[in-house]
Design goal:
Elements lengths: L17 E2 L19 E3 L8 E2 L10 E6 L17 E4 L9 E4 L9 E5 L5 E4 L3 E2 L4 E12 L1 E13 L5 E6 L3 E3 L5 E4 L11 E9 L9 E17 L3 H4 E3 L4 E8 L4 E2 L2 E2 L2 E9 L4 E9 L1 H6 L6 E8 L5 E11 L2 E13 L11 E4 L9 H9 L5 E5 L1 H4 L4 H13 L3 E6 L4 H4 L10 H4 L3 H15 L5 E4 L13 H12 L7 E5 L16 E6 L5 H13 L3 E6 L10 H17 L4 E4 L20 H11 L3 E4 L8 E7 L2 E7 L4 E5 L6 E3 L5 E3 L9 E5 L4 E7 H9 L1 E2 L3 E2 L6 E8 L6 E8 L5 E3 L2 E6 L4 E9 L7 E10 L9 E9 L4 E9 L5 E9 L7 E9 L5 E8 L4 E8 L10 E7 L5 E6 L1 H16 L1
Helix pairs in contact: 3-5, 11-12
């Protein structure tokens, strides 16, 4: 078995190996590396295999074994550890020296030494009695010198009553030459319920070669026991209906009442917190000695059922902490989501999950329940390894269950059987090396997968979402067609695909089959770049599948920010035109949506909220809002979903329909009330995306279909002609009126016009506009109000459009900041972008209410040049009104540039400059 992250192997299943003692260990056992997420202890807080100098791993735990190879463990002085077993076989030769060394020790005077000499070596302890009522912490010290190809590891094998191995923990391998001992501390283990013994192993293991010189020393191998803390874990405990009370079930076992003449008293504390870590509720239970003695038969001491109040929709954590004599020794956390349970999968959709990666402990029934509530219709699952395991039948049932609840499974051909994988280099480029080999090599193994899981699975991916080994392959199309032909001998192949890289060329697919290419969309990829890649894949004749990856976790990062960025990236993936959108590895500890026990991560609800809102919809564009919030409109049947956000908190007041609901990224759903006077809804918009469902699709289409024929006017006092173009988006004829509401003193004629058109018709409404002298140059927001009272609308509604003032080739910008002496400095910055080039002269003015006019000339501003005029405002704080008017009139020309700033805008500019300067 390969140690994850290393080139070394432990081969415990070599049938040519024999044991010379302890015959009960001569069975063939399945080796499992166990990673226990969500569990921490004070005495073993470091991660598995990290080097922690001088840490006593049994601090806070009760030691049950301490192996240091001193006198009491070599009573006959033969330099061999008493009652230990040495392994023998073709790969475990007798000539490798393994004995107790009197010259090296991590502590004390002795250690076990194994000399490298062209073979592996392994020593095993006697079985040490343990139980399943405790959790266990383990540590070991290793020293190596002169090793290049071999490495040293310590193993802890957990056995059942029949001394059959159930699971096994392996330290990280140590190799090379070290002056100091490496002290390895493992994460605490919560054993299987059937565990009764543990066996310690000291190994010298090989990679592709063996060393013939060098040594490894083993010492101070410790096992300590701690109470086992339990928090109930299943679908119902992790996903709660929003209007239901939450009950937390917790208990502790393995509560020793004394050790080393010290009596123990215990207290079990629980507290709940929100996504920010804010404490919500807490409780505690004192566990007396009498309670412990009474619980021997029930095996649960201090069992606590803690009923929490009704929490609003959102993500929550619960932490259980066990104190012994007022000192924290064990803690465990879990999480739950409060949400509106839907009880079924959407009928159709393009969102899905990737269930490859870390092994989890979720039952098939719970997995079906979780996926049913997740708003997805697609699931990627690795199936090759499962087809060759004892779980092949359970995997088949899960795949069938997914299909029965409208979730389409995609089989991932990854992790081929060991007898095939071992024919290739350990550092192979990926699964393409296997599938480009002669089919004779892999056909039989692939046929077994097809026979088991087809026709439940008709879409297949070669490799996982991290395997890009097919990218850049010559004759890629022909190669994939050949693989498809071989796989279709047994199974049905509707689609076949692989992972692809951003910006990698796509070979043209001339075949009928619509294969797919998968792209990862992460924080390093812009929307424009991702969309270009999606377009290139579509042009190549493939479907484009997206893997949306959240931002990396940063210490003390705001959970809202990661959720916001994930939601925005999902929306970008949707509007890019990607055919399917998958979550990155669902069980990834940093980027995933679920923890290994099935509890939700803090990204689960944001993902679910978006999928439920956008499944089966089509991206339509965006509408203009009065406060310019970013938004995207998605249409599904007769309903529109709008997602909006704004980097500055604003209130958008607009009529969107009569049954509009807002959804926070954490799943909270709120009905948006309308004004009884004008029907408009007030929506508080922040940098956190707000999802609005139930919006009128006709109103959204109407707003997106309104435009000005010209939409631009020169900055002069002359009257200008334009037309308003309106397309009837309703499925019926409409009659009503429209008026362009004057703003900034503009003169619009006519102010109000009648409107009548059939469904889908475009109507042209001419009007004239005249500007006041102080009109600011640039885009100016205009409101257009439609009153269609006879079209089943209860209120008039407004559409907002920008109208460009000026020729768009000369721009003015205003900057402000405070000087050290308290004066306010105003910069009037003008850029000439005329084409064909012009040389322009301006007369610049700053007007302040109650102060004299500031005037300055800007001569000979050539095309491509930016210049500025600087004004100083003394005693700024004494101004009664702090609104400013900056104006630039072109000499002998038609351009007039205006910028009117009210007091709020002025103060924002000053604050922005202060923040920039402080950074």
């Amino acid at each position: 078995m390969s140690i994850r992250g290393s080139k070394y192997q432990i081969d415990d299943l070599n049938k040519n190996s024999t044991f010379i003692q302890m015959k009960t260990l001569a069975h063939s056992f399945v080796l499992i590396l166990i990673a226990f997420a969500n569990t921490t202890t004070v005495c073993a807080a470091s991660s598995s295999g990290l080097f922690s100098k001088g840490i006593n791993t049994t601090s806070g735990s009760i030691p049950i074994a301490s192996i240091d190879f001193e006198d009491e463990q070599d009573r006959d002085y033969d330099r061999l550890p008493d009652d230990w077993m040495r392994r023998k076989g073709l790969d475990f030769r007798d000539y490798v020296l393994a004995e107790i060394d009197y010259t090296q020790a991590a502590q004390g005077r002795r250690s076990l030494r194994i000399e490298a000499n062209g073979s592996n070596a392994a020593y095993y302890s006697q079985p040490i009695s343990i139980d399943a009522q405790h959790s266990y912490v383990m540590s070991a010290s290793i020293l190596t010198r002169g090793l290049k190809y071999n490495a040293a590891v310590v193993t802890f094998s957990f056995l059942n009553q029949r001394k059959q191995r159930i699971h096994r923990i392996v330290t990280d391998p140590i190799s090379g030459t070290h002056k100091e001992w490496s002290h390895l501390q493992l994460e605490p283990l919560i054993p299987d319920e059937n565990v009764r013994f543990v066996v310690v192993g000291c190994h010298l293991i090989s990679s592709s070669k063996n060393d013939i010189t060098g040594s490894a020393w083993f010492d101070h191998i410790c096992i300590g026991k701690l109470p086992r803390l339990k928090l109930a874990s299943d679908f119902e405990t992790h996903f709660r209906q929003s209007d239901a009370r939450v009950t937390i079930e917790s208990s502790a076992t393995g509560l020793d009442t004394e050790y080393d003449e010290e009596d123990f008293q215990y207290e079990l504390k629980l507290h709940s917190e929100d996504v920010y870590g804010k404490l919500l509720d807490r409780t505690s239970t004192v566990i007396t000695k009498a309670m412990i003695e009474e619980s021997i038969e029930t095996e649960n001491a201090g069992e606590t059922f803690w009923e929490l109040p009704v929490y609003p929709p959102g993500y929550y954590r619960v932490r259980a902490t066990l104190l012994r004599n007022d000192v924290e020794i064990v803690s465990q956390w879990t999480s739950f989501a409060v949400l509106n349970l839907i009880g079924k999968t959407p009928e159709k959709g393009e969102f899905g999950w990737n269930l490859s990666g870390t092994s989890h402990d979720i039952s098939a029934d719970d997995m079906l329940a979780i996926t049913r509530e997740s708003g997805i219709n697609w699931v990627k699952m690795p199936v090759w390894k499962q087809a060759y395991s004892q779980q092949s039948s359970e995997t088949g049932q899960l795949l069938t269950g997914l299909r029965n609840q409208s979730i389409i499974p995609i089989g991932m051909l990854v992790n081929p059987p060991a007898e095939i994988r071992n024919k290739y280099s350990e550092e192979w480029t990926g699964i393409s090396e296997l599938f480009t080999s002669p089919p004779l090599v892999w056909r039989q193994a692939a046929n077994q997968v097809m026979a088991l899981y087809s026709p439940t699975v008709t879409r297949w991916q070669l490799g996982d979402d991290l395997d890009s080994s097919f990218v850049g392959m010559p004759k890629y199309v022909e190669t994939m067609d050949g693989i498809r032909h071989e796989l279709q001998r047994i199974g049905q192949i509707r689609q076949l695909g692989v992972r692809w890289n951003i910006d990698s060329p796509v070979q043209k697919n001339q075949l009928i089959s619509k294969n797919f290419l998968t792209l990862i969309f992460d924080e390093n990829t812009s929307f424009e770049n991702f969309q270009n890649n999606v377009d290139a894949i579509h042009s190549g004749g493939y479907q484009a599948w997206a893997i949306v990856k959240a931002d990396a976790k940063i210490s003390q990062s705001d959970p809202h920010q990661r959720a916001n960025n994930l939601v925005r990236r999902m929306i970008d993936a949707k509007r890019s035109g990607a055919d399917l959108i998958f979550a990155y590895d669902v069980f990834d500890p940093e980027y995933g949506l679920l923890n290994l026990d099935g509890s939700p991560s803090d990204l689960f609800l944001p993902w679910r909220t978006v999928t439920l809102a956008l499944n089966g919809s089509q991206y339509a564009g965006s509408i203009q809002l009065p406060n310019r919030s970013t938004n995207h409109v998605f249409l599904r049947d007769d309903e529109a979903t709008i997602v909006m956000w704004n980097d500055d908190p604003v209130t958008e007041e607009i009529y969107l329909g009569d049954q509009v609901f807002t959804h926070s990224v954490w799943g909270e759903k709120t009905f948006v009330t309308s004004s009884p006077i004008n029907g408009r809804q007030k929506i508080e918009v922040t940098s956190v995306p707000t999802i609005l469902t139930g919006c009128s699709a006709e109103l959204a289409r109407w707003r997106m279909g309104v435009k000005f024929q010209k939409g631009r006017i020169a900055s002069s006092a002359a009257e200008h002609e334009d037309s308003l173009l309106v397309t009837n988006a309703f499925p019926w004829s409409i009659q009503g009126s429209v008026q362009i509401i004057p703003n900034y003193g503009w003169e619009i004629s006519p102010r109000k016009q009648n409107l009548s058109s059939g469904s889908g018709e475009q109507t042209e409404l001419p009007f004239s506009v005249k500007l006041p002298s102080q009109t600011a140059i640039g885009e100016q927001l205009m409101a257009i109000e439609f009153d269609l009272g006879g079209s089943e609308l209860n209120f008039p509604f407004r559409v907002y459009r920008d109208y460009l003032v000026g020729m768009g080739d000369v721009h003015m910008e205003v900057r402000m900041y405070k000087s050290d002496n308290g004066q306010v400095i105003v910069e009037q910055i003008i850029t000439n972008e005329t084409n064909p080039p012009e040389v322009i002269e301006f007369r610049c003015n700053l007007l302040i209410r109650g102060r004299r006019r500031h005037t300055s000339n800007m001569p000979s501003l050539v095309s491509g040049q930016t210049r500025k005029v600087v004004y100083m405002i003394p005693e700024f704080e004494k101004l009664e009104a702090k609104d400013l008017w900056l104006r630039a009139d072109q000499k002998n020309g038609a351009r007039t540039l205006n910028e009117l700033l009210n007091e709020e805008q002025v103060m924002k500019l000053l604050e922005r400059s202060r923040v920039v300067n402080s950074e």
